[in-house]
Amino acid sequence: MILIEALASSRLSGDVLEIASGTGIWTEELLRSAASVTALDSSLEMHERSRSRLMGNPKVRYVVADIYDWVPDMSYDAVTFSFWLSHVPVSKLEDFVSNVSRCLKLGGRVFFADQRREALIHEVMDPPGGEIARRSLINGREFKIIKHFYSSEEIIRCFLQEGININISNTATLFYYASGEKYRAPEKSGPVISP
Hints:
By secondary structure, the protein is an alpha/beta fold. It has a single domain (2-117, 149-182), classed as Vaccinia Virus protein VP39 (Rossmann fold), CATH 3.40.50.150. The chain has helices spanning 2-9, 25-30, 44-53, 93-103, 152-161; strands spanning 14-19, 34-41, 60-64, 76-82, 104-115, 121-122, 131-136, 142-147, 164-170, 175-182. The strands form two sheets. It has a seven-stranded mixed beta sheet with strand order 3-2-1-4-5-10-9, sandwiched between helices.
């Protein structure tokens, strides 16, 4: 899969923070190069599924917390999140990216991937700051979810403001991914985690 190859080529190593880690699909890939992975998710059930998948790998530390309220206890060599940015409300995008920057050491790497707008079937409704999309699962169940499809320019601007230079690439179908490096401290003031 091209996203797995992109993740591997992004050179995430050392202590890695995985935001919205879910069932551990991406965690498993991260363990190929990371010294440790802090898996952050708001769902204990997702962590339990991940522990089962990864057979209790001691290199993974599980944290149950809301990313918007979480205060990290360390800084990281890399931060990653997959299929999460489109769930971040417009009103919280800059704060989210600022938190990513605060968690990341200078010279640290970032990688993320998500769906492009074309990947989902959309409803007519357009709530403020997002779109209602219908997600169809393999088992036939369907859910309505709010998604936020940011432009590449919006994403790059937010990350640059926080001292992170990223490059965004599109796959041939449905997805995009970004990787980059923190090259300076953020422009805005705020608490920075010590290495």
